[in-house]
Amino acid sequence: MIDYIRYEIHTSADLKVLPKGSFKVEAGGGKNKEENMSVISMKNLLEAGVHFGHQTRRWNPKMAKFIFTERNGIYIIDLQKTVKKVEEAYEYIKNITENGGKILFVGTKKQAQDAVENEAKKCEMPYINQRWLGGLLTNYKTIRRRIDRLFELEEMETNGTFEVLPKKEVIQLKHERERLEKFLGGIKHMDRIPDALFVVDPKKERIAVKEADILGIPVIGIVDTNCDPDEVDFPIPGNDDAIRSVKLLTETIANAVLEGRQGTQLEDNSSEDKNDDSEVEVEEALEEEAEIVETEE
Predict the structure, then answer these.
(1) pTM of the model
(2) Pairing between strand 196-200 and 127-128?
(3) Arch. (CATH architecture) of 80-297
């Protein structure tokens, strides 16, 4: 619990652990020249706690180049490098979406679920914020059949078919629809393999990252100090556990999508608050998850 709480508690005193002269926060919310040129401000990154890494005993040495210092047993991420990496990812995503490309947003941990869903919907992109089903990319044809089944059940409910079926059968069909909607609802309008993935915590979403790698799909990922940045194409060093941090970075990626599609610069907003599963195996995965949920309830 202590390791989680430290992500959310931060004050102006944290300015002391950042690179001296790296940025300046002026009274009244003013920004210096460097901030005005960036797609995300150092001030907003600080306020969202993006600079907090994991405990020093839980780290990946490959993240050393993104770490500024250590404070009270916790690594502090260099926000200058975060800004640079965000800008690189922003430009890449903007270029993809300018040409009609699709970005799949992925974040199944609790801290990321709302941000991933809300921001993906905002920019009209597909998303996965529940369990990643094995083969979602590498065996997309099978997943597509389950999505078609979801559309079929939705049509049955709206065209009155449910009204003429036995009550017990209707209950079963509604349960099936709800289950499919939960796990596949975010990608039901994704008619092809995405052009890139945006992932919150590649370590947590290692199956998604592996499938993307197999298919040669670029991955943009928020990497905390316990992640391997080499596993993604565009690493964004930052806190992947704090809700505000995840929201800010995910929001920025969504803005890149919108700018690419609309050709309009969007204002930087602060954060307030190898797999080849068969169809049967996909069904088993869905059933397993349903049992887990029922047990928890």
Answers:
(1) 0.78
(2) unpaired
(3) 3-Layer(aba) Sandwich (3.40)
